[in-house]
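Predict the 3D structure for this chain.
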Amino acid sequence: MSRQATSTPAAKVSPQAAQQLLKVIEHDCQLAQQLKTVLQEEKTLLERRQYNAHSELVKQKTRSLIQLEEADQQRRQIMSEMGFSADKAGFDLFLKQVPASWQQRFSQNWDTLSDTMNTCGRLNKVNGKILAHAQNSMERLMTIIKGTVNQVAIYQANGRKSLNAEHRMLVTA
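Done. Predicted structure below.
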């Protein structure tokens, strides 16, 4: 029965569908590379604390992510129409159905896309950490400006907490 399942998609893999899939994967690679570039620029801006320029870069990143999502949906649809799942296992099964002369080009593009997206994920995680650190630093600065830094809450005689130094009584006569 599994033999029949692998032969069914072979009838659906037309040269036109395969070429269409290749174009979509190549386009995905270009979009992923653009996103990687934006994320690298974002990292540089965050490290330099150039937050005004960062907002424009966030818009570019959002556009890139939307375009990648659209391309991903297109790739998934093509794979589905040919009878394959849109994951690595489906792609590997697809590769077995195309001529050997095409397999290397498909594999290289798939690997490039996968590697670039993994790099994008790592860069995005680093950028998130940089932003979190900057936010924590800003919050610490705000507490210093407000004058609430390192104030320890103490309980007063009536059982209430007090953060203000004027309410702290260290010694009574």
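The chain has a mean pLDDT of 82.
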